[in-house]
Amino acid sequence: MKIKTLAIVLFVLGLNSVQAQSTFDKWPAIKAFHAVMSQTFHPSEEGNLEPIKTRSEELMNRAADLLKSDIPAEFKTPGILASAEKLQIKSKALHKMIQAKASDADITKALAELHDVFHEIVGLCSEKK
């Protein structure tokens, strides 16, 4: 009887640890996007646009990777997919702006909008738990 109880306890603990996994653990492509986003967006808040100016292509590619990736079934909703497409479109537009030598104000605004879309996706993923 003790073995059966132990097995049930271990099963419940294992189930809880799976449920406690973060969105980033479940969806590696969003984690990769976040790494570049955080390393480019946060400096922009301080007025430093050099990171985004040198890494905009990488950010654009990471956004494209989201839609190509193996999206976990729980995140494959119309809302999340639409937001991921918007992220891809906005990241491509940001990269083109940087290539065209847009103003720092325009780049900062576009990056902030992209950051908001990223948080929209993460928020939608969190609702699915």
Task: Describe the structure using short key phrases.
mainly alpha; 6 helices; elongated
Number of helices in the DSSP assignment: 6
Number of separate strands: 0
- pLDDT averaged residue by residue: 87
Secondary-structure element string: HHHHHH
- Shape descriptor: elongated
Strand content: under 5%
Q: Major beta sheet, specifics?
A: none
End-to-end span in angstroms? 33 Å
Helix content: over 70%
The residue ranges in which pLDDT falls below 50 over 5 or more consecutive positions are 5-20
Query: Structural class of the helices, strands and pairings?
Result: mainly alpha
Explain what this protein looks like in three dimensions.
This protein is an all-alpha fold and 129 residues long. It contains six helices and no strands. The chain has helices spanning 2-19, 23-26, 28-45, 50-68, 78-99, 104-127. Helix 5 packs antiparallel against helix 6. The longest helix is centred in the C-terminal third of the chain and has 24 residues, at 104-127. The chain is elongated and about 40 Å long. The model is unreliable at 5-20 (pLDDT under 50).
